[in-house]
Amino acid sequence: MSAPIAPLPVVDHQRVVFADGLTLDCGQTIAPLVVAYRTYGTLNAAKSNAILICHALTGDQYVAELHPVTGKGGWWQTIIGPGKPLDTERYFLICANVLGGCMGSTGPRDEMTDSAGCGLGRPWGTDFPNVTIRDMVRAQHRLVTSLGIGRLLAVIGGSMGGMQVLEWAATFPQTVYAAAPIAAASYHSAQNIAFHEVGRAAIHSDPDWQGGRYWEEGRIPAKGLAVARMVAHITYLSEAALSRKFGRRLRGAAALTLLEDVFEVESYLRHQGSTFVRRFDANSYLTITRAMDYFDLAAEHDGDLAAAFRGTRTRFFVASFSTDWLFPTSESRALVRALNKAAANVSFVEITSDKGHDAFLLDEPDFHHALGGFLAGCADRLGI
Amino acid sequence: MSAPIAPLPVVDHQRVVFADGLTLDCGQTIAPLVVAYRTYGTLNAAKSNAILICHALTGDQYVAELHPVTGKGGWWQTIIGPGKPLDTERYFLICANVLGGCMGSTGPRDEMTDSAGCGLGRPWGTDFPNVTIRDMVRAQHRLVTSLGIGRLLAVIGGSMGGMQVLEWAATFPQTVYAAAPIAAASYHSAQNIAFHEVGRAAIHSDPDWQGGRYWEEGRIPAKGLAVARMVAHITYLSEAALSRKFGRRLRGAAALTLLEDVFEVESYLRHQGSTFVRRFDANSYLTITRAMDYFDLAAEHDGDLAAAFRGTRTRFFVASFSTDWLFPTSESRALVRALNKAAANVSFVEITSDKGHDAFLLDEPDFHHALGGFLAGCADRLGI
To answer: B366 at the A interface (CB within 8 A)?
Structure first.
């Protein structure tokens, strides 16, 4: 067994509670439904300047401020602020922790409830129902409605955030004036599912996993979760980014033993893995990766992706990155073809970058310029 | 802890013992040195028709016959036999288990010895010295010499086998008439090292690992080794191969719970992982993956890959597969450029295949035709 690690800290997240709960794609109703969220900027009188940001697998609602657990800066703060592409002097930004997450929205760490919403005295754990990307979007829709917003200026997000953007545009087309799916795809590929499965197997293999009831034992499956993070992290980087940063530099020629870190890439990955387990919950990781794996927008429309967007009036901005092999440009192009088939208003850009999938989170001036221009154009058109 | 799994069966492998041992790149001498091997076909009177086959990471010397542990057919039997590219009526084929392996050649499961070759009464385990690809090749060279063979008609191998082929050509150029590195590269990339590191972390994280002394506890780190195999297996397949075989077919729409196999790819990978642990030793996996990670032929020649082949008279046949992303065509092209710079006799072919890295093991007629033609041409030239 590994040494006990303190459970995730309890944080008093900003939240809204829907006592009537939410009925999921699987048919089960979760009640109450809690949606934790953060906002940046000011909602105008017409309530027309709201942009919803959808976060990725291990992201959360702390987009542009210090994270309450890690104390690090927001995950997209490079792009948010006065004068930046997501200009907080012009737009009202909203980001909600996804359903199934571990930063305040209803998820596996919460107290399990029965169909009448009565607490059962123990956390959901692995009894938490399977959620889909569409379930996440429905929960966000409840939040947006509760804020009195009838139409979002835009919904934007990268990676799993981009999946949510597409689901928003397909499920609530009247609510989405503009949609920006970035470094995303309309389905999760077999290879991506397989990498997720490795991560899940690593968590399940950790004896501290305890069949998902680790909290009750005062443990967390830290080693398994770290291995899961490590394999995922590789998929976020390009070979060029890995080589440039860590290459083949040895950490010390004398250290040639079987158990020590030799290549810098190894110690880097180990560090990434161990940091991650202090801020993310294993059951949430399992829940959310499953939601990504199930995502297949065409399958929700009898195999016809264009049908998901039939008659849409939403303006689309699709962006991919040239060295992203997790969500390659070919998948964005397939999405654009379907949007074209639906006669949608769509622009597409492939950003040249050697940073891989992670590029959407990093300082990529061409990407920021393109996204900022798209949003400003939409806002201009609406007189915002 | 996982349930105890029987240790690997003891098999009486064909072998040769070198009592004086082998001095490794790390400076340590291992004595005695045991090299387990298999041969197919007949060595001719001139001893001029021998082809050495070098196996990949988890391969072994049972190339073209039933495996003594799994009972399955040989890993390259599609290409070996009368009238096949590796024609056993024309050539004498040799394959040795690599140094550090677990199928009879000296490795971590053997009894640890002191510098005088005296047994210390316990297995090497993680005290087994770091070996390099060049050390593996030196051990094979001892075997070849002991068989009375002064020059090999060819050395061939895929993946890590191709690394050995290149090291053979660089270290023993007079002994190698022809060299065929297939689906290989002159160095291991940062991304490949990172995937190996995930596998090693999974093994180290398994409580049955016991710091590498699992045999003494009557255990094997089966779960960690299975996860390692799973992640490696993904890298051997192309996205197309994964999609075609396992795609997004669900195993049963009712099975929507967190712990069950849902996607067929998941159950497939789990099966692959669990089969593997019954035939492969975890300490050998650590030892051999390290050897691959250290491999950088240019670095052994002051950063100049062409210098590794300066003045060579060996004929080279370099082959890659179009959807191999573990050892992509670009790395074979870089090798060919270095060989050209060394004015070597080299032919190169990229085989169009959608099977990924694994293609070198599968029924790929274009590849078999090209390799068979190359070998036959060399044999013709030597009057064999």
So the answer is: no
Task: Give the pLDDT confidence of B191-233 residue by residue, as tens digits.
Answer: 998 899 889 988 988 889 998 999 888 888 888 898 899 899 8
The residues of B annotated as belonging to the active site are 159, 324, 357
Please state the separation of Cα B7 from the chain's center in Å: 22
DSSP A279-297: T--HHHHHHHHHHHHH-BT
- What angle do the packed helices A160-171 and A133-146 form, to 10 degrees? 70
Task: Clarify whether A205 is annotated catalytic.
Answer: no
Could you say which of 1.10.1740.110, 3.40.47.10, 1.10.3120.10, 2.30.110.10 is the CATH number of the domain covering B192-290? 1.10.1740.110
Tell me the C-alpha distance between A159 and A352, whole Å. 17
Residues 250-309, chain B, touching A (beta carbon < 8 A): 256-259, 262-263, 265-266, 269-270, 273, 283, 286-287, 290, 293, 296, 299
Q: Do B201 and A248 touch (CB under 8 A)?
A: no
What ipTM, to 2 d.p.?
A: 0.90
Mutate to test the interface with A, among B195, B204, B256, B294 (most CBs of A within 10 A): B256
Write down the pTM of the prediction. Answer: 0.92
Task: With CB atoms and an 8 Å threshold, state whether A230 touches B259.
Answer: no
> Hey, are the CB atoms on B194 and A234 less than 8 Å from each other?
yes
Percent share of chain A, pLDDT over 70: 91
- A231 inside 8 A of chain B by CB: yes
Cα–Cα dist B257/A376, whole Å: 43
CATH superfamily of A15-188+300-381: Alpha/Beta hydrolase fold, catalytic domain (3.40.50.1820)
b/e code A71-98 from CB counts within 10 Å (16+ = b): eeebbbbbbbbeeebbbbebbbbbbbbb
Q: Where are the domains of chain B?
A: 15-188+299-381, 192-290
Tokens 């390009």 -> residue: A238
Contact (CB, 8 A) for A208 and A215: no
Q: Is A159 noted as a catalytic residue in this protein?
A: yes
List helix spans (H) across A147-189.
160-171
B92 Cα distance to chain centroid: 20
B2 pLDDT above the threshold of 50: no
Only one residue has tokens 């490794």, namely: B24
Measured between CB atoms, which of A194, A212, A230 is closest to B198?
A: A230
Pairwise CB contact (< 8 Å): A243 & B195: no
The model's pLDDT over A150-200, given as tens digits with 9 standing for 90+, comes to 999 999 999 999 999 999 999 999 999 999 999 999 999 889 988 998 899
CATH superfamily of B15-188+299-381: Alpha/Beta hydrolase fold, catalytic domain (3.40.50.1820)
- Angle at Cα B200 formed by Cα B3 and Cα B333, nearest 5°? 135
Distance between CA atoms of B96 and B61, rounded to whole angstroms? 5
C-beta atoms surrounding A343 within 10 Å? 12
Are A198 and B269 within 8 A, CB to CB? Answer: yes
Q: How far apart, in Å, are the Cα atoms of B88 and each of A155, B64, B77, B384? A: 65, 10, 11, 13
Residue A32, preceding peptide bond in cis (omega within 30° of 0): yes
Contact A128 B26 (CB under 8 A): no
